[in-house]
Amino acid sequence: LDVIFGIIFGIGLSNFLNYVYDRPTKEVYLNSFVIGISTLFAIIYLFSPNILYLDFYKFYGLFLGYIFATSFEQKYVNFDYNTSLFKKILRVVIGVVLAFSLKEGIKMILKTDDIYLSYLFNVIRYFLLVAIVFGLLPLVFKKIKI
C-alpha cells in the first residue's frame, strides 16, 4: 500500500510540477510551492523530533540558500561564465575549498546535543553555505575579475 501510494503521489507531484514549471513565471511558482511544502514538513517534524529528520533540515537550508543565491545573483551580480579555462578551474578550486571550509567551520561553531537546535543549526549552516558559495562568491569573482 505504501509503494502504491508513493507511486501515485510521485506521478501526481511530477505532473503538477511540470504544469507549474511550464507557466510564464514558472520559477516563482515552483520555488513558492517547494518552500511551502518544505516549510509544512519542517513544522510537522517539530512535533515528533527524530535524529533521522536532520537530513531534511539540511535540504531545507540548502533549498532556502539556493533561492536566495539565485535571486541575489540574477538581480545584483549577473555573473559571466564565459572566461578562460584557467579562470574556470581557479573558480572551482576556490569554490570547493570555501564550501568545505564553511561547511565544517560552521559545524564546529554551531554544535549542540539538543535536537531542536540541531534542526535550526542545520538550516542555518546549509543556507549560509549555499548563499555564500553561489550568491556572494560570484560577486567577489566579478569584483576581482577572476
Could you characterize the architecture of this molecule?
This protein is mainly α and 146 residues long. The chain is 82% helix and 0% strand. It has 5 helices and no strands. The chain has helices spanning 2-21, 26-46, 54-77, 85-109, 115-143. Helix 2 runs antiparallel to helix 3 and helix 4 (85-109) packs antiparallel against helix 5 (115-143). It is globular, with a radius of gyration of 18 Å. The mean pLDDT is 87.
Helix content: over 70%
Task: Tell me how many strands there are.
Answer: 0
- What is the overall shape? globular
> DSSP strand (E) fraction?
under 5%
Average pLDDT: 87
Radius of gyration over all CA atoms, rounded? 18 Å
Structural class: mainly alpha
Order of helices and strands: HHHHH
Q: Return residue spans where pLDDT drops below 50 for at least 5 consecutive residues.
A: none
Taking the alpha carbons of the first and last residues, their distance comes to: 54 Å
Reported for the largest beta sheet, the result is: none
Tally of separate helices: 5
In short:
With 146 residues, this protein is mainly alpha-helical. The protein is 82% helix and 0% strand.
Question: What secondary-structure arrangement, pairings included, does this model have?
Answer:
Elements lengths: L1 H20 L4 H21 L7 H24 L7 H25 L5 H29 L3
Helix pairs in contact: 2-3, 3-5, 4-5
